[in-house]
Please model this.
Amino acid sequence: MFCFSSKFLWYCFIVLLCSGFLSAHLIGLSSVSGLSLEETMSRRMSSRSFTSQSLSDKQLLDVLWAAYGYVGNLRTVPKIGYGYPLVILSINSTGSYKYDPENNVLSVNDLTINKEIISNDFGSNTWVNDASVILVLVWDQSVSNNQYFASAQAGCVVQNVYLAAASLNLGTCCVDAIDFQALRNHLKLSANMTPLLVMPLSYPRGSYSQASPNYEIMTGNLPRVQYSSLSFEQALRNIPTAQQSTVDSLTSLQLSQLLWASYGYTSVTFDSSHHRTTPSALGIYPLVIFVSNATGLYRYEPDTHSVLEILQMDKRSAIADALSGQQWAANASTLLLITYDSSFNNGNTGDGGNLDHANIEIDAGAVIQQIVLEASALNLRSDVLYQGLENWNGAQAAVIRNTIGASSSIVPLYVISVGIANHATIPEISTVPFLFLMIATLAVIVSVKILRKRIFRGLLHY
Model:
């Protein structure tokens, strides 16, 4: 039987408080002022001017974990296609390093390859070289040979890097206007390794301003977007894993949150125009989001934050059937269809759907990641459906287009099912580490106390 003095108990109490304080600062990504996920999404912006201040190793690893790391045995981005075919290289002034997602560490790739070696591979984007670190996303074709799926998953990574940077007051930008062959040669990549894009990462010269959803334009029929209780990091850690979901309908507020996150406007401005929650190649935003649920089919209108009714019919079963007969998806509360409007001509993209676009897939991936994150913040289950859409504007895409009554210019890319998760309790991210530290600290203190007594008794008998 142990008997602790009041002085000793107070000592334990103080140590436990300190342990709790430390645990709050040792859990992965640090959030800025406790920003909610929606506030972080609103802060997302592209930075093209950087200071000379270097990143810390922890900052870089925090960003890389958010981009493509693990939460338990799951990844921070969904699987699109048949694996995780991306490799992230980090290039700085000392060399090139390869990110190891399983262990969340960087290992030396080649110390003869540094920022100077690749400095001419970004065309007119010479500002990329000013960043402390340049992240290169590489597609490993030996893991998956589908470039569309690889590009879409790269879009998911891009979005996470943007949000992680916004959480850490860092700056970044997605750059795909690069000399791919020169970069491959300079990085000494094998024939099956293809660079897709680069993201400079550093401290921006300009500071982040206060940001929110763009409430001024939200005059449509969807409810006002609210801030959830989860941060970006917590949303990453809370992405549900069960494939089953209930058939309960989403509320209008939940639908509002998901649609705004996918393609809505924020209060941040650039050249007199408002930012979106996701980036877009050339800033043209040619995607169209459709909603299919039990009451009908709707089209999201970001300019007013509203939905426009297209059909008063439940098309979920027909859409799921076109996706290789995945009828389980028809039981989800809502299906969100990500499509490309190939008649969009602002930026010379009006191609009638005849041309494939890796950059459009990257745009779609960023939208996918936003939906997955917002669904997690709302404690909803989301799944990315890609089966049947392996080819650009293929036969099943045509089936979906006809099912929803869309024009020939609409190219279906991906479908995301969203439903109410069976488990309704959001885990507290800091609870487990805090309890673990409390128990571990108490165990250490007790062990030290016992050891001191034994040493003292040993000295008496010496």
